[in-house]
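tool_call predict_complex ligand=protoporphyrin IX containing FE
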Amino acid sequence: MLEARPGNPESRAGTVDRRAAVPLLRRLRSAEGLADPAPVYDELRAMGDLVPAPWGGYLVTGFEACNQVLRGRTWLVPDFAWQERQTETERWHAVATQEMSRTLSRLNAPEHTRQRHSLGNLFDRNTLLDLAPRIEADVAGLLDRLAERIRADGEADLAAVVSERLPINTVGRWLDIPPEDYAHILEMTHNQVHAQELLPTKKELAVSEAATADLRRYFTDLVRERRANPGEDVISGWIRTWDALESDPAATDRVVYQLTMFVTIASLETTATLLSSLIWSLLRSPGAWEWLRARPEHIDDAIEEALRHDPPIRLNSRVAGEDTVLSGVLVPKDTMVHVMYGAANHDPRRNPDPHTFDILRRGTHLAFGGGAHYCLGAGLARLEARILMGQLLRRFPTLRAAGAPEYAPRMVFHRVTSLRVAA
Ligand code: HEM
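tool_result ok
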């Protein structure tokens, strides 16, 4: 029989008042918490590796506990069937939430395995080598624009001019999406994301629902167009793969729509936030820009440290597939837990002196998740960051921040909405 170990300090979760985390969660969403969540992570962790969430379930704060949840076979993603069982219907039965529950990140085996297998290693070495020259050229163009803006106005918004553009240009080109559609895709992505936040309001769910319908229309049409005019592009390849797996072309088109839509939206805000956070971390640390400029061989280390220090996705959810003991706490089947990637990365038991941005740390992080759902685009995001940093450091030796960044008021999908720079 499963038993929570009495006396284990981490088993305090059973006795902590569920409302105790409310002010801390409020602080995480405040301007102060968005800019620097580290003090809140410390306070949450002091309450235990598992902190009862105000709405039920647990927040998982420790690195080892988060890692265990992500990799453990007893943990599942909250899929469509789980959502259907929930009595809190406003959230879980909302159209936007249900639509996302058909996508890769919300599927469990065997369907998850089947879809993931169909994609293979999306960004293997050869694909990345093929993509790199176009990304180099694209970055050069974006940095020309940044330089122009700085010359004309004395400063420019690096988030808008560079960080938000590079991921959509890269993924758009890879999927052969017309460039004139990029702005629309970005807008739909920013609006859809509300449904994936913790406790979205009615108004946010409505915005998300409209964006979900728009995304469905856009990507369904795209797949239909590729079926009518197949080529050597990625989406046509997915249609061929799925036609061999499914007897009904309509079933293929449905899966390919879900895959294309999800891969696209999963790649955009995440990468943009990594780029802006990395640059901000370097610009705010005295001497770091010059140091890295003189040692570009450490660009990859800086990227990993930015992912650790400020992961673009701060939190993800899983549910217990069976009664499970985690950090000494008995978590009953079907209970939801929130893996706090940021708090885990700042766990001093894993990364000593965790709040310091230290390029040479060689720490460990969970920014791309772990286990069966490990991010499929990690290689591409790292490549974009590497190419951008190489050129930015060479071309802007005196780059400096012209103000603190601004953030979208969200807790799950961290988004830098503005990062003003001068040179
Ligand atoms: C810095 C940028 C990125 C970050 C921080 C990030 C982070 C993540 C995280 C945390 C997950 C969930 C993992 C889990 O549940 O354990 C994930 C899943 C995923 N990501 Fe990324 N991601 C990034 C960029 C990308 C890019 C560029 C793409 C595609 C081009 C992509 C495609 C995906 C897909 C398809 C999944 C779902 C995998 C599955 O459920 O099997 N991501 N990502």
